[in-house]
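WARN retry 2 of 3 for item q-0093 after timeout on previous attempt; input resubmitted unchanged.
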Amino acid sequence: MKPSESLFLQTYQELNNSDTDLEIREIAKNHLLDLSPPAGLYFSVETQDLITKEAAQRLAQAIPQTVAQPELSKATLWMRIVTDFHRGNNWGHQANLKAKPTGPLTQEQKVRRELFPYVWALVQAVVIMKAAVYYFGMQSSNEPSLQNDVLFAIALTISFGSLFVFAWRKSHHEDKPK
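OK item q-0093 returned
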């Protein structure tokens, strides 16, 4: 469950004091899509949270109408809230022209970002540079010339140099407090 979905359900339950049925859970799951600004604009994470709370409050306050008018479903009430949001100029919330906001990184994303340099160093050392060293080494041994020897030396230097730079960067990488 996404944080915005749980915030929606929590706010709804605080005001309605009832269990959330499947219809409310489906609304909570898709509410950010329904309450998104026009194309090319984005809300900040804080603004999304404010809109989420306000939408859940409005839905919780509108639910008693379904008792008085049985023809009104929760989905119909939600459509009215979404329509009011878009006609009411996003309920006064400003959308940004900047890039889409990113929430906090998940543990899996943190691991991937930390692991990528190691995988790249492995691919570079094992595949790319090995092929270059082998090619220029064979060229240098088959046709001994100054040019082939220099190219072989450059390939070796780049191969070992990239590993040394990688090792230096990782040894000086300060772990951030968790």
